[in-house]
Fold these 4 entries.
Entry 1:
Amino acid sequence: MKLFPLKSPKLIYIITRAHGLRTHLLKSEDISVLSKAPDLSTIVEGLLKGDYAQDVSAIPSEKINAISLTEVLYRKLVERFYFIVKITDGSLRKFFEAYAKRFEVDNIKRILRVKHGKETITEEMLIPIPREYTTVNFPAMAGARDLDESVGLLKETMYAPLIDKIELYKRYNTTLIFEGLLESLYFKELWYNIEELPGKNDIKDMIGKEMDLKNLILILGLKAKNLPAELIETSLITLYYKLNKTIISSIIQERPESTFPVLMGTYYNKYFQGLKDFVEKNMISDIEHSIFNSLFNEHYKIMREKPLSLVFVLAYLSLCEFEAKNMTAIVTGKQLGLSEEKLKSILFL
Amino acid sequence: MSFAVRAAATKGVLLRLREQLGFIEKGKEILKMKREQLAGEINRLLAEVRVRGELEKEIMEAYECLKKAHSMLGYQNLQSMALTVGQMDVSGLTYSVMGVIVPELRIEKEADISNVPSGVAYEAAEKLSPLIEKIIKLSESEAKIEKLVDEFMSTNRKVNALERIVIPSITNTIRYIEGRLYEEMLEEFIRTKHVREAIRRRKA
């Protein structure tokens, strides 16, 4: 008889809570039904029955639109993430805090893009992160005169290395340099915090795959734009899981028609099966959707196969994120009159 | 006809009217030539404007792409990505076609979409960016057509007025004055004959 090591009560508690929280998520069937709704008001009616009820009912009826609903969806997503942070402590809390920094990274990216475009940014354009969980002063960054000043405000945070990239940004005049570095810093911090976790291999596998696949999608996207190899390399995540510098360099250097065989030679070949046409024709959004859909199904599988592991909690958070993306697609698609077929093709099911 | 009534039937007026008629005939020919040139230019521009239907189709396709990007990324995220697109520079000039001042839009710098970070947003930008250039060219052609058609109509009215009112009126006046002058000449001739007869009778 195989004996399993006993799990700490804290770990059991958080896994149990995640099992309970999982039941609050919309099921694939719910998403399918909502995607078939004739209009936005039917979707709102559907949302009033679930976890979003309180926030959705707080929106005045004349202000119900895709933007206000997306705000609610992301507020709920952030709330779900930080609820997990709240109920943990020690190394677990540190890890989940680091994991939730993806919202912080996203907000910094948005601010830098707006500053690059010399426009002003409003609060509604940012993901609402509770002040106590962020070291970044977003209102100050948003109010900064220009991009230099905005980046300068990151001096006391983990994103301080961005300041050194200002010269490079000015040379290429693209925020992709900052975006790549932000992702690198995020994953480095996250990777560092995995080490002390129980069942770290499963978590490393989940995070590592996401990191590597994001990198591969990024390379394909940047190659499609015919950007110089040096700029592509600077815009990538500098941490690898099952990839290495040689593979990355060969994908960057390869001609578009020879990229696919190289991808098939990597650990991630199963994610690219059936995507030959998309890769050769540079259909990046389709590649991205197909890969993330595979990840979505994989995370579902993790929840089924590893219900007593910490990776279950991580998979739950990932599914929360996919739910927010799906619901954003549904509410925005409905408002814009996107056909049912097209809407279905962009959902993660 | 008012010309005929008002004009004094003198040789001086007749000469002046004949000069005027010659001048107006020349003017009419020039206006006709201008009208033909304008018609030619309008026809050429109409060929450019005919792509509108096709362009509208392309715009609808690009909008579908944009809808997809909006849905996948959300308004706020896509809005921030849109700001990474390098601004397009368009300058407006004017030049003259047969005396008509028409606008010309010149794209000095194309929109740089290479910084758009997301794949789906880039695809939408890739479809929309060349369409914006086409829309600018189409609006330029439409504005030109509008100006040229205005001028064409005005020239046409002028030619018609000359052909149907001014020239016939002057021609009638000339004919009237010629008639009057002929009658006066006959009167003068008869009077001279009578005078000569009276003198001859007195001498006899």
Entry 2:
Amino acid sequence: MEVVRLAHETDFAGWRQAARALRARHVAPDTTLWTVDGQANLFDGASPSEIASEGPIDPRSETAGRFTVPKAFVDLSAKVILHRSDERFALLYRLLWRLQDQPSLMHIASDPDVGRAQGFAGEVSRAAHKMKAFVRFRQTSDEDGEAFVAWFEPAHRVAEATAPFFARRFANMRFSILTPDACVHWDMTELAFTPGADPADAPAEDALEDYWRTYYASIFNPARLKIGAMQKEMPKRYWRNLPEAALIPELIAQAQGRTDTMVRQAPTEPSRRVVKAAIRNSRDAPWEGQAATSLEEVAAGVDHCRRCDLWRDATQGVVGEGPGKAKLLFVGEQPGDQEDLAGKPFVGPAGQVFNKALAEAGVPRTETYVTNAVKHFKHELRGKRRIHQTPNAGEVTACRWWLDAERRIVRPRVIVTLGATAGLAVFGKPTPIGKFRGQPIQLSDQAQGVVTYHPSYLLRLPDEAAKAKAYAAFVEDLRLAWSLAA
Amino acid sequence: MATLTLKRKLAILSDAAKYDASCASSGSVKRDSMGGKGMGSTDGGMGICHAYAPDGRCISLLKILLTNFCVYDCAYCVNRVSSNTPRARFSVEEVVDLTLSFYKRNYIEGLFLSSGIIRTADYTMEEMVRVARSLREVHDFRGYIHLKLIPEASPALVNQAGLYADRVSINVELPKDESLAALAPEKDAAGIKKAMGAVRVSEDAAKDKGRKTRPPKFAPAGQSTQMIVGADDATDGAILKRSESLYGAFRLRRVYYSAFSPIPDATARLPLQRPPLIREHRLYQADWLMRFYGFARDEIIGETEDLDLAIDPKLAWALKNRGEFPMDVNVADRERLLRVPGLGVRAVDRIVDVRRYKRLELADVKRLSRGIEKLKPFLVCADWSPGALTDRADLRQRVQPKQMDLF
């Protein structure tokens, strides 16, 4: 029987030194006993450094003392050591022993030893997390000024490991966290550790705790009592050091009564109801009736338009942009993802192609009016992405109400339709682009129509040569439209 | 009017804030107070809950209203203008002091500030931005800040709020725009959507890698929203469809569902019946399935349907789609294993890791999951096949929890 006596409960370096030496000497886990200095034990035991210097290395092992272990094991051990279970040193040594024959052991979470060690590590992480959550500082002062002190009882020995978190968070505040295992001190420059302390060493109260309790009691909603959910995350073992926990029994006891009172009380009548209804009616005025006579009216109307169902999933209605008396009016299909969010036409990828082509054709966009046949973004969701869908004839017809209003108000000399949907909206019938492009078409309202591609069509063409050809034709059409409008 | 003490104000203005479900302090960037002159840190991923109230909700932030005076008259809200609730208003300095004092004692991760609308939207938003600016610039506070945005406020103010806050949020409040018009006459569904769209545009711009000078960070923990469940007649399907479109359009981090709960001094415009809390829980489960388990909304529920309250939505899906089962734990893809009722993301990841080294038996799966009985009808292992169990007519009775797990 080999007995190892570690210096203290969280002596990871000592455990590592002894374990390395024992494994090199082929000392099996079931003949090893781990103790900690100061603990009552039948055996005296040897310290890790004694074990490391003791006895010859087993001559059968050629690589004795120079074996490697996966990093996952080292990281896991450093955590497991902090667990309060007496079993932890032996468990880790058993894992180290088994890694010899099973190098991939740490990946097998279903193995009972690995599962147990991972379980310990999980409990240690949780204890560290709860320490970050449940430490409650109390203010004191000494000759150097303001300082903060907390008394805390962690579920596992995580005080030292969690100290850097508090130092980073409260870099400019002097504090001490006292626990039964170890105490942490921060002087705004470095962390220091001292042995465990007693609750009486911490201040007994803090004036702010009364405010904190007020907040805790007020933020609680008595109409939805879920005591189990609370205790799962805030176990009772922490309650005695939480100033707010003293209120819990009283809050629970009163909850039902408070809820009943709320439900029993007769509803009150809103005083200004009639006025409000009038405001509501004016805002939600229906689209039937008078057609819009200004672009402002169009913008307001489109936003509350219910002529078709596309408004439901769209962010907003996107109306045209440009001077109210432009000579040239562009009609696209509908806003895309970017346009829908920004509330402006042609600002996404297709808009960039459009701007580039306009610049090449010498057409200043700011002197033209740019709008769409359909004002809301039609799309379907694929995962979290919104994929464009072509509007149907019914939606195009419904939205002509607004396009026609824009045409009437702007009175352009030339209307350019970008893509098939725009053609349908402006001419009232399908106008195949291949057949009609390159020639002005007389419209009933005295304007001339020019048919061309939609910029996003140019983006979609897979073949580079075809893309270049279509782009050149597009620029040519824009130039034609601008010359007609001049 | 008698002056209220600070403690009384705190009681009124935190009581008024409790109907906002969110108290998360997660998802921001990593930062700490080293090298600064103030205090505070955020660790990037997970937030910290400093306490739990007996309603089971996490208390992570100091969640308060700047004021509960409000010119709006939203039927579901305790702070509506026509309510007879006691009123109070904090000064900017009072909020800053309370936040810092609580933070120093490790009570909180930071501040969640909301407000009733006083005078105008812009005036109110400006006051809220002043609090955040003082915390960040005067006190070099590096903890978490969540600001509620007022949809009608000017874009410049919203933009400033995004520069100081980790997270911003606007509540859509009700799943159907028609209900919002009926219950909250001053709120404008179209305005809310536009404001959320503007937040996403600002977020995207701040992440734009193409720019030479790195733009300042805009609300690094993104935006979230809340819907009240059970105050109108929307079905669960309609609610989830709304969430789906919100996630898609605005890249929301979270949609919170809050079961409508009785408020003091209620109005006659609301239903008297409160929805069961389990309904809220099922909605969260379905939301999780859409976000982390690769389910499409229409696989879980049709637009006019409600979720089954007795069993969770994944089990309900599995019972309706028995043809997909049993799945072989040793062979099936990760995506498919995620569809097995009773297996969570963590269990699936462990299974995928372990099976590279050994063939899994039933006992192995038991150690990797939380209970094997519910899983048995849906899984094939090296030493287990459910046989006819998967297709039994009484399977639902066998796997259904004996009692409701929440009520």
Entry 3:
Amino acid sequence: MAVANVSAHDAASTHDDHDHEHHDNFITKYIFSTDHKMIAKQYLVSGIFWAFIGGFLSVLFRLQLGFPDMDMSFLKPILGGWIDATGKLDPTFYLALVTMHGTIMVFFVLTAGLSGTFSNFLIPLQIGARDMASGFMNMLSYWFFFLSGVIMFISLFLEKGPAGGGWVVYPPLSALEQAIPGSGMGMTLWLIAMVFFIASSLMGGINYITTVINLRTKGMSFSRLPLTIWAFFLTAVIGLLSFPVLFSAALLLVFDRSFGTSFYLADIYIGGEALPNTGGSAVLYQHLFWFLGHPEVYIVLLPALGITSEVIATNSRKPIFGYKAMIISMLGITILSFVVWAHHMFVSGLNPFLGSIFMFLTLIIAVPSAVKVFNYLTTLWRGNLRFTPAMLFSIGLVSFFISGGLTGIFLGNSAIDIQLHDTYFVVAHFHLVMGAASFFGMLAGVYHWFPKMFGRMLDEKLGYVHFWLTFVGVYLVFFPMHYIGIAGFPRRYYSWTNFSFADMYTDLNMFVSVAAIITFFAQFIFVFNFFYSMYKGRKASSNPWHSNTLEWTTPVVPGHGNWVGEIPTVYRWPYDYSKPGSKEDFIPQTVPLSATPESNLPHEAKLVQLEKEIMAEEGEVLVTNESKES
Amino acid sequence: MYGFLISIGVVLLIMVIWMVYRIQTLISVAKGSDKKIATTSNKVNAILFMVFLIGIGGWMVWYSVKEFHNYQLPIGSEHGIVTDRLFWITMAVTGFIFILTHILLFWFSYHYRYDEKRRAAFYPDNNKLEILWTLVPAVVLTVLVISGWKAWTDITGPAPDNAHVVEIMGYQFAWDVRYPGADQQLGNYDYRLTTATNSRGIDFTDKNAFDDFPSQSVVIPKGEPVLFNIRARDVLHSVFAPHMRLKMDAVPGMPTRFWFVPNKTTEEMRAELGDEEFEFEIACAEVCGNGHFSMRKVITVVEPEEYRKWFAEQTPFIKSNPDLVADLPVELKELAEIYINEE
């Protein structure tokens, strides 16, 4: 039905679009825009802004960890009272830095910046739709996110500091201001910001799901969707099912903090007084939190994997190996992501029997991840690889996904996790597999679709320099953390010198900090490239990567409604690269099978027949339509 | 002055980079190489992947071997030997996959770099391969899980009846230790009874509490089961004894436990490591506030005879501070006085 509607609507809408262009003023075009491409760019720029804030916070605490004796007075102009008279960083603020770094990176950069940018940008363009199902809701989604960001940003400047109980904000620490100053106003703002963030994610997610289900163009069946769209679709499903649970966790925490309830609080004596709360369970919060928290890992990772699949296939000039297996493994990851959350809680006082169950479930999820890696490797095998910056970042992603994924096998094993839990081994693990991998997915996406976003190319050479500095940098930062973790160094420590078992590796920590600072500054190359190329970059052609997917059939800079005239019909899957017999090494999705008899595979002969019948029917419809009009 | 010079240097550096960048852009436009695909850059990137594989890979292997004795913590408990063995078995398996997949990833990247004369192979799927690499990881993981599961159930199973009980209570920012005394029964506690002199909130109307005694460090016997009863008074903490391969959260309102068998005395460990200063330590592994990084407690492991001797010499709470039982009902107070006056 939807398909028929779209084509019937086309003729009229092209005319509308034309009108629209003239009515756009600055505010409707750049600020309160309902165009999915503009909203995507808004998300992207916000994501870049937050990535720099989050990265800068990490540089600050890496300075403390790498150079514990350093005089940090030179940071006084920025940090003010958080640097004491002797030039030392305040331990409370250290915890706040760690907390805000985590919150910002996980939610604002890798969730909003990644899904928000590429789901918005690519879903309509790659499935052949004029825009999102609800442009207005899409706009609201961005502005809720923006508001959330403003609130979180304000909390950075509070006198008592922002939230400081770690990004997981476990109560009772996060519920009691007596326990840590950040649990006062800072935590209140954190919770308010998260509520807006969750609302934003839900509105975005509903839109993505609806659009993918309802607005695919003619011929774009689910079995012809690019893997990017599959990934965004499943990501949105995960978000829709898990974010409300975080909302409930936050709501109960608000009640405990402000209205005297005892959902999470029990038997607490603090600041010289016994609190009246009894009967609550701190572990309940952890269950609710990780019911989102673990799927969240896949919310940030799946879009990156989707982007990588697309970029690797295009630049290997080869079909992605095992398209169906890729979809099945993503589905497997989606479903399993909901039943592994308690592996974050093996030593939280959880019933050990439950621990066993979650250990089994957790290690099952490693199987689809392994399948994905092997499929990527096979896609590269016997390819004809073009190392565009996007391709380099995608290969980097695969490397991080392997390195970080393998350490997950240690942590998912509850017996081994006893020792490794909350040590730097965990920090190394998730920064590689979820942090760096997703971040690389995001950068691959920016490099690959920049020409479609701004009609100009990013500079390749700068892209190469950016890639190599970042790739090597990330490994130099996070690989040594495995050693530190195996040696038992706990996380979120301001200093390790109080313990004789951890009073070593000052050299390694210094090394990590230097690598982190260099990697951070290497990102400025990207920012320069990004903003410079936006205005001064080389003009892009309409299909610079010789890619098959639909977005490259639009004008170089697509306007409102994306396609001038009718939305193209799709006749084949998106991965017909280097098909034997075909002259070019790519066949776009819009080329009918009947037009390429020389390269059709035996099983496609039947489809050609079917295609011809449909086209004949279409022809009749068109003829009748025309005769009606005249 | 230095700041000024440095900023001038930075500005000059940026200008140089800028010039180089502009020149290379202009050259590539002039040569028309910006239209080509099989460029030198493509080759350079392919080679860099091999350099990365050999360079960074070699550095990782070298450092892992060189530092082996540094990052591997000595083991102080029986189950620690089991979990460490599991750790290193997993390391062998994953290490093999890590190296293999990375060699493939970077070798393919290098070997199949773009060549105008070549065409990529059209190889969209192979179900046999997919099944193969679904089943192999599944089987390997099953083996790892089952051995991990066995260890986990042994470690988390109920403590033996003869285990020595030690109560460890976390609060901001230290640990308080309590022993059950001669009767081997810890007295009840109630957080509302917490005062400056009764930091653990011990309920002295419970007779079992009369002989309970505190200790500055956790003293435990070698070779005998020890049960930590763990609780927290204010926020979450986590008892982490790295040498014992022991970690368990301390949760307000929900007591937790962890039992283990220490297998080396502190003295033995000192001799073995040649480090006279060595101590087994407890740290906090769950963020709990400003002093999170300073919650140190020492565990002293001694020979069983020495432990019994030490245990018998300790002074109960009520003996060192008789005020604790001043308000008790008469009968209980009389009973308490027996403990207090005992020599």
Entry 4:
Amino acid sequence: MTHDYDLLVIGAGQGGLPAAHMAANLGAKVALIEQAEVGGT
Amino acid sequence: MLWSGQVMHLAARRAAEFGVEIKGPVRFRMEKAVARKDAIVRKIQKGIHGALNKRDDRITFLRGAARFVGDHEVDTGDARLSFAKAVIATGARRSVAPIAGLDTVKFLTNRSALELDHVPESLIVIGGGYVGIEFAQMYARFGSRVTLLGKSPRLAPGEDPELSDLLATYLRDEGIDVRTGAAVAAVRAEAGRHRATFTVAGEEHEASAAVLLIATGRVGNTDNLGLGEAGIEVKAEGFIPVDDQLRTSQPHVWAIGDVKGGLMFTHVATYDGPIAALNAVKDQGRTVDYRVVPRAVFSDPTLASVGLTEEEARNRGYDVAVGKVPAGGARAMAIGDTRGMLKAIVNRADQEILGFHILAAAGDDLLHEAVAAMYHHGTIDRIGKSIHVHPTLSEMVKSAAKAAK
């Protein structure tokens, strides 16, 4: 079964951002979704 | 904003000691401090967007609130998208303490308290943890009359008791009314003021102030994620349980940072992120190691620590040597701040550093010498015998290390 994305990261704070970048660097197709501001609180 | 408080403190209270004469009153402009903070945040966010744009070949950045509608699908508000694996990194927020009357009054949280356009004449801070301490001191330095109510017998419970007591003394010296062991029973608004009733050792007291700030517990940001739809277990406070690989109860979903509870620090989230990604993308089975997680209360002086306290080390059966020195020395005198104390906690059997606790100017930066040594189970000699630049605050770290006999 194929999916739209290899990895979905929910939240672009100081945890989600490095997770998304590492996954991208490893070759994954990543979706990063944020409802407020990037960078977290 | 904390730094604005520091500058205000030096300008309003201490400039003359350093030979700086200020004619006329020193005034704090809250709106300018907030604008400065906002400009810094915008610059950081611009950098983040820039890095994401450079990686847009592989990262699609979406705006919206994701809600699971199945174990491999979310609704983003605009669309539905499917994923093979997921990482939940939604963080945590202040929880509202179960205090009678809190639902009838207006109060600030750590977020809204950074958006004020004026300095309140007076402020009650409920919560004696990291956030409560930082905001109490910051607002006191802005010019507010501050009452800090902490439920535990000491501020920053869990930290070294002696350093915690010293910090409370310094806060009182700055004019903050610090009450510990203070259980707040109720709050109410009356004639435009906020009143909090609290008990200390069974005796009832009341504090009143223009503004109320709640800095008590935290809850995970999971309410609207639809975790049930994805079969992901969640605890009562909204935190997601994970295993040592950061995997949730759903094997293809990981949770990182504050949303998993436990050590809620930004630097833990930043540590977690790549580990979850390696496990999700490459199935590497990496485990987290939280043995050496530094902590800091951004008070002035800063309370910073890593590893075990003396009491924790003894409770674990270690024969402990403690290297304890007062903050001081040439550099501390030069910058006019000799407040504080440093403690090295060492395993007498093999000289391994078990913990390091610093209450001193720049303690948060000073700590990392110990953090780096502890990461590889370093002995106290690494710090005690290496040459340190004179005159620096880091010499205090070396002094504490040498005192651990």
